[in-house]
Design a protein that fits this description.
The complex is a heterotrimer of chains A (about 300), B (about 350) and C (about 130). Chain A has about 300 residues and is of the alpha+beta class. Chain A is built from five helices and 13 strands. In chain A, strand 12 and strand 13 form a beta hairpin. Chain B is built from five helices and ten strands. Classes of the chains: A alpha+beta (about 300), B alpha+beta (about 350), C alpha+beta (about 130). At the B-C interface, helix 3 and helix 5 of B face helix 1, helix 2, helix 3, strand 1 and helix 4 of C.
Chain lengths: ~300, ~350, ~130
């Protein structure tokens, strides 16, 4: 196969533009303003506590209108109806989840992506759309798999920051997942993992965590936003008041995106007295879904599977 | 803590202390003398690090040591020699008898399904004086109720035999749920490693396997009422000893458990005591009370070891990679004649 | 008498179990003890995952066709703690696996004994950063 000069030129230009976009992605920084976080006994900013996001990022990082469900079935066209010009009314929830009614609905929400949209490469944008259409079979959350980073942060469950002397733990309620943030050099991760390998440092009052060695099995939300195993995430947790942190995560994945991009959202302190995380052993909740029909007997019916 | 439990655990502690003393007496005198307990910046005893039970002592006293709570010094030395030799053999790839590279005729399959290198921690097991981790009752045996003993025998008999007709038939560990709280400090399918991290008001124990996690408040709060798989742990300091009481377990006695004695039931009541006695050693005792499984409370005294800095626990994505589940269900269907064999 | 006591300890249940792990993984539910199998093949994929690692192996069958087998191994975390990396079992390695085939007849087996074709075991010994034996 011959590649013409024009092809080479086009490819060189594309590479240069890509590189420029990549390098010029402006870093975004939360400013704590006048607020100074309280200090721990060893003089570090004190982020200890139970926190939770209060937004719709777990449905979709990007701006989205309210709709009846995550998995939708297109309704029949109504073009035949006199006086009704719209060919397709609101799609309806997919049969598998229709019984949830309004409890299965998706509230509208603003984008938490700085700049609004996720800069997908064209093939990846198509994959995201396909993921969204096949949400019920593809979203790892449905199978109770560990959510990955940054998704764990803004799922609708609390998480707890526990500041030890040499490590900081971030304990998430969903799927009983815990990350260890190493604050000293502990070498490299032996293999890619679901929650990655986290190295932390302080930049003034901000806890900065560099997350590497993530596998390609996790998503960013329920809208099919995804990544490859080239993902690297830099998180920034900045205390803004006694009651909230600003969370930022910069996402790099040259296999999937045209440039790094950043999400930003406040996280709120759970103020209930003696609040604690609870076990959420969701494996038990999904075994029937995943394995019910695979055995000799279906535990739901007690009958033999065909 | 109920008065009855208090009285019992005090009596038991006397026995436990006697045995632990005979264990720690083996430490070089200097190590004991020069060591001072380090504290967290906010003043609590510092228990942080990665810990593991590295002893050779089993939970229950072997029948052939009945009536003997401790080994003699010579026996301890002999056991230590055997364990050191084994570790050296593993390192050299010789493996030795019944630990891997032996023929089917030489070793049983159960316990030898895979080469030993997968489970080699690169360290010799420690020889301790005690002949069982259980120090109360004095016979070193689990005080099962009749029903629980039957359940334990039944469970043992069906291990690997089945039937495996649905996802409810493998045990809770094979289902990637948990092996229970009871033995968390001294065993686990990957070797039972625990990382302890302390933050003001909390002691957190991360158990590698099943990523079992216990965030233990030590901030003076009382128990609540919400039942959980791993129960509700609340701790306090008694001098330099961390005391943790765990109640409010969910009832999961209707599931298969790898060990009946670790199963969760609503009446399960656990009291643990953690006391660091040297840079590398912790005295850990656990008293377990559950009328559904035991005729009386029992106590184990477990010497646990702090591993060198740099030893990590790693992510345990069990459910995420649990191919054994669909595979064994598929095997069950072929055996039942519901599906054709693939070849 | 003293010596026999020591021998007694050495032979007792105290010393009998080489590795204290909780009884797990219903091996016999998944694999068939009546179908022992020896496979020689080329490693094409190594998955160091919990609760069991998997080695994907291309095996040339008697009629010359290549069969892709999946070999179940132990969990990887102890290996990680001893400093193991996947470089110890590179893709393309020739290995011999002794084990038992899956009960459903598919091309899966447990790797009861895994060795390189020259007899070395891939994961034995120190990898340089693990703790010293005590």
């Amino acid at each position: 196969m011959r590649i013409g000069f024009r092809g080479v030129l086009a490819s060189a230009v594309a590479t240069a533009v890509f590189a420029a976009l990549w390098l010029n992605a402006a870093p975004v920084r939360a400013q704590a303003g006048d607020y100074t976080a309280p200090r721990t006994a060893d003089g570090r900013p004190d982020l200890n506590g139970i926190w939770q996001a209060l937004n719709t990022a777990h449905y979709d990082l990007e701006a989205h209108s309210a709709r009846p469900a995550l998995a939708l079935t297109a309704a029949l066209p109504r073009a035949e109806q006199p006086g009704l010009g719209r060919s397709t009314p609101v799609p309806m929830p997919a049969p598998e989840i229709r019984a949830l009614g309004a409890a299965g609905g998706v509230p509208g929400g603003e984008s938490v992506v700085v700049g609004g949209e996720i800069p997908y490469q064209p093939w990846a944008a198509a994959r995201r759309d396909e993921n969204a259409a096949r949400w019920l079979e593809r979203d790892p959350e449905i199978k109770c798999y560990m959510p990955g980073v940054p998704r764990a942060t803004y799922m609708p469950y609390p998480f707890q920051i526990l500041q030890g002397t040499n490590e900081i733990l971030i304990a998430y309620e969903f799927a009983d997942t815990t990350r260890t943030i190493f604050m000293s050099d502990v070498g490299d991760s032996p293999e890619p993992t679901w929650m990655g390998w986290s190295r932390g440092r302080w930049e003034e009052d901000t806890l900065v965590v560099e997350v590497t060695d993530l596998n390609d099995r996790t998503w960013f939300d329920r809208a099919g936003n995804f990544h490859s195993d080239a993902l690297r995430v830099v998180e920034r947790y900045t205390p803004m008041s006694p009651y909230h942190l600003m969370y930022e995560a910069t996402i790099e994945d040259a296999n999937v995106f045209t440039r790094p991009w950043t999400i930003r959202m406040p996280l709120y302190r759970r103020l209930e007295t003696d609040k604690r995380l609870f076990d959420y052993k969701c494996v038990e909740y999904v075994e029937q879904l995943m394995y019910g029909e695979l055995g000799v007997v279906d535990p739901e019916t007690g009958e033999q599977n065909d | 803590m109920s008065r009855r439990t208090q009285k019992l655990s005090r009596a038991v502690l006397v026995v436990a202390a006697a045995i632990i003393t005979s264990n720690t007496e083996r430490l070089p005198a200097q190590e004991v003398d020069d060591w001072t307990l380090s504290r967290t910046p906010w003043g609590d005893p510092d228990l942080q690090g990665v810990w593991r039970y590295e002893g050779a002592t089993p939970l229950e006293r072997p029948d052939d040591l009945a009536g003997r709570a401790t080994l003699t010094d010579e026996e301890i030395a002999e056991l230590a020699r055997i364990e050191a030799e084994r570790a050296a053999n593993r390192e050299a790839g010789l493996d030795g008898v019944a630990v891997g590279r032996s023929t089917l005729d030489e070793s049983p399959i159960r316990g030898n399904e895979y080469n030993i290198f997968w489970q080699d921690h690169g360290r010799a097991r420690q020889a301790y004086a005690q002949t069982s981790l259980i120090v109360d009752p004095l016979d070193g045996k689990l005080p099962y109720t009749d029903d629980a003993r039957i359940a334990a025998r039944r469970s043992d008999a069906r291990y690997g035999v089945g039937p495996y007709e649905s996802y409810l038939d493998p045990d809770t560990g094979e289902r990637c749920l948990t092996d229970g709280v009871t033995a968390i400090m001294w065993q686990g399918p990957n070797g039972g490693h625990n990382r302890i991290v302390q933050s003001p008001g909390f002691v957190t124990i991360l158990h590698e396997e099943y990523r079992d996690r216990r965030i233990i408040p030590v901030d003076g709060r009382e128990h609540g009422s919400i039942r959980q798989w791993l129960g509700e742990a609340v701790g306090h300091w008694e001098g330099d000893t961390l005391v943790v009481e765990t109640i409010n377990f969910l009832d999961r006695t209707n599931y298969e458990w790898a060990s009946i004695w670790t199963r969760a039931s609503e009446s399960l009541h656990i009291i643990e005591r953690f006391r660091r006695v040297s840079e590398t050693d912790m005295e850990y005792t656990i008293t377990v009370e559950d009328p559904k499984t035991f005729t009386r409370p029992w106590t184990a005294a477990v010497p646990i070891t702090r591993l060198p800095d740099g030893i990590q626990i790693y992510e345990y994505a069990c459910h995420e990679g649990n191919r054994a589940m669909p595979n064994l269900l598929s095997a069950g269907r072929v055996e039942a004649g519901l599906a054709p064999s693939a070849n | 008498m003293r010596i026999s006591l020591i021998a007694f300890v050495a032979g007792s249940a105290l010393a009998a179990s080489a590795v204290q792990v909780s009884a797990h993984h219903a091996f016999a539910a998944e694999f068939d003890v009546n179908r022992p199998i020896t496979l020689t093949g080329t490693v094409v994929e190594l998955e160091l995952i919990n609760p069991h690692s998997w080695i994907h192996l291309d095996v040339t069958s008697a009629d010359g066709t290549i069969e892709r087998w999946m070999i179940e191994g132990g969990p990887p975390n102890a290996l990680f703690r001893r400093g193991f990396t996947r470089a110890a079992l590179p893709i393309g390695s020739e290995i011999v696996v002794e084990g038992f085939q899956a009960k459903d007849g598919s091309m899966r087996a447990n790797g009861r004994d895994i060795v390189f074709t020259d007899g070395r075991t891939p994961f034995t010994g120190s990898f340089g950063v693990g703790p010293d034996s005590r």
